[in-house]
Write a structure and sequence with these properties.
It contains six helices and five strands; from the N terminus they run E-H-E-E-H-H-H-E-E-H-H. The protein is α+β, with helices and mostly antiparallel strands. The chain has one domain: CBS-domain (Roll). The radius of gyration is 16 Å and the shape is globular. InterPro entries: CBS_dom, CBS_dom_sf, Diverse_CBS-Domain. It comes from Jiangella aurantiaca.
Length: 152
């Protein structure tokens, strides 16, 4: 199964001039967990629900903090023909829950952790137990980060 088959085509975008509150409002209104920041057709960042929580938790004023201050600039992306398993591994390795999907340099969709979970849940129902190549290193790295207090 390829990412194009399960990604959300409707993408929520904003510019770097918005505020943290405007990004949060967009996410709430569209019931999504991220806002992709674009400049023309180029992706320049992404703001996720985790970015909002981290910023507010550290004292940022949602009405004053700009998207540019909060967004992740090194955006990990995939292409529509990427296998879902490879996309899931990419998301796990980089600790991300939202993966922008890009074709010919343009944002065409987004794959969420929820999308991937739905596929694996359907496989479980159909086959009884999907074969999943579990990467214990990802789990070990996550546990080490939590123990060290790195909750990002």
């Amino acid at each position: 199964m390829r990412v194009a088959e399960i990604m959300t085509n409707a993408t929520i975008t904003d510019s770097t001039t918005g505020t943290l509150r405007s990004a949060a409002e967009q996410m709430w209104k569209q019931q999504t967990g991220s806002v992709v920041i674009v400049d023309g057709d180029a992706i320049v960042g992404i703001v996720t629900e985790r970015d909002v929580m981290r910023a507010v938790g550290r004292g940022a004023d949602p009405d004053e903090a700009s998207i540019a201050e909060v967004m992740t600039r090194d955006v990990i992306t995939a292409e529509p023909d990427t296998h879902v398993r490879d996309a899931a591994r990419l998301m796990a390795q980089h600790w991300i829950r939202h993966l922008p999907i890009v074709e010919a340099g343009r944002l065409v969709g987004i794959l969420s952790q929820r999308d991937v979970t739905g596929v694996f849940a359907a496989l479980w129902h159909e086959t009884g137990a999907p074969e999943i190549d579990v990467d214990n290193l990802v789990r070990e790295r996550r546990l080490a980060r939590v123990e060290a207090g790195d909750l990002d």
